[in-house]
Please model this.
Amino acid sequence: MKIMKIKSLFRNSNIKNRTKILPLLIFLALIISSSQGCNGYKTTFDGNGDFSSLGVGVNPIATGLRRLTVEEANLTILRIFKDTTGPATKFIPEDDYGPFDNDYRTQENSEVFVRGAEFLAIDVSRRLIADTARLNSILSCTTKDAACFTKFVQTIGQKAYRRPLTSNEMSQVVKAAAALSVFNDKIDLSIRLFLQSPYFWVKSETAQRSPASIAHKITSVELASRVSYFVTGASPDDQLLQAGISGNLVDANVLRAQTERLLATTDALNQTDRMHAMWLGYNKMQLTPTLISSMRAETRDLIKKVLFDDNLPWVELLKSNKTYIDDSLAVHYGLPVTGTTGKHWIQYPASSGRQGILSHGTFLSAAGKFGGTSPTQRGYHIRKNLFCQKIAPPPPDVSADDPPPATDEAKCKIARYKALTLQPGSSCVGCHMQMDPIGFGLENFTASGQFIKYEAAVPECEIEGQGALPGIGSFSGPRELSNLMIQEGSADSCLVTRVIEFAFGRRINENDQYSVEYVENMVRKFSSHSNYKQLIVDIVTSPEFSIRRVE
Model:
């Protein structure tokens, strides 16, 4: 982002006292440019440095400067201003998903982003001031004088920056508003200042960094933000922020207690639901709004029961023989109905072939292609996201954008796939043998989760639904696939890897010995309890979580 471009945007804005905002936008440009490919500190670190000063056996994971995602901005604005509209979704460019939205290496901070941040600030401020009841509930005073405004700046600024404002920051905002005579205009200006500041958008973790260091421990208040955004997706609540400000989070017992407290909140459940939706590919379902709502609720309810209410091992998400749905969704799935209103737990009939989250319309909707299901894409999706395995891309001369053509010998879908990709001697057979058989075993289930016996496009083609997990066994349907996955054992270690990537905002670098050793240590810990919430606690309380290592 060129600073001149930001100046141009700034000149075109209608914010009062814009000269007070210009330094913040210039600083935003500088901090944005440092987060794209370079974090501002030149280093030739090759992954084999000495971090013994940070603790025995510490394996810090390299990270860069991270900014708030769209959803994190929405939840932070909700926490500060009680704004339930999710306004960042309207103004801030959509995040990339790979599979998560918080990977700092994919965060593009462009002219569009800076302009969006300006319009977002205007929108949030205007609607708050127009809502007298909500504004009064946020103001900690009723006098609406200079002292009241100063208190507002101190309180809201601390929440926006996730730390106390410095005296200089306080005086800048107060002085900027001094020329305004109307109290609400002062409030308006201060909100716009805060919501366009880099201290709002960037998760700064450099307070304790020395110029020569490659890795350093982050401060207690910085740790409060890192914990909160990982566990809840939002800025720290008052209790966590105060623990951070007081310096108490450097105490392992306090950090553990605060993490466990957060895990008991609805915010943590919502974050876990979002994490699974991104990881398993159903965060952007291409179905009707009614089906999407019902299916997302079904999966969220299973996550809630297994991981939060019953505190069971994560693998129970694959093993559950019950689901929580209403009769409408039961009819859609072809399951028995109860004749009652509302949602209820029903047990899958043995003949349904269903079991656990792989049976849900959410999961089955992922990895579609050519207007329906794709055995190749489903197999690839499971290999990549549930086994954390890599599959080589197709050769340059092979088009993956055309469905297997029908021939006189291969009219039915599975026959077409086998004829195109699984013929002996084909350059494609090696990779497709790892993917397609998995998808074949799920072909009786459509992208909307319905069970079918015959192909919709070619009704004379009966779907056998016979698949295999190569090297493990054959299966038919989600239940048998789930059992084979549990037997194979990679799903647990893949879960740990993905949660760590979500926590640190980046994919694990397989060539970095420290990252690899950290993951291996966490996998060993997880294997001793298999509990999702305990995994979160283990990550947060590990020494590595409190360290920022320059990439």
Observations:
- Strands lie at 62-63, 215-217, 322-325, 344-347, 467-469, 473-475, 547-550.
- The chain has 25 helices and seven strands.
- The longest strand covers residues 322-325.
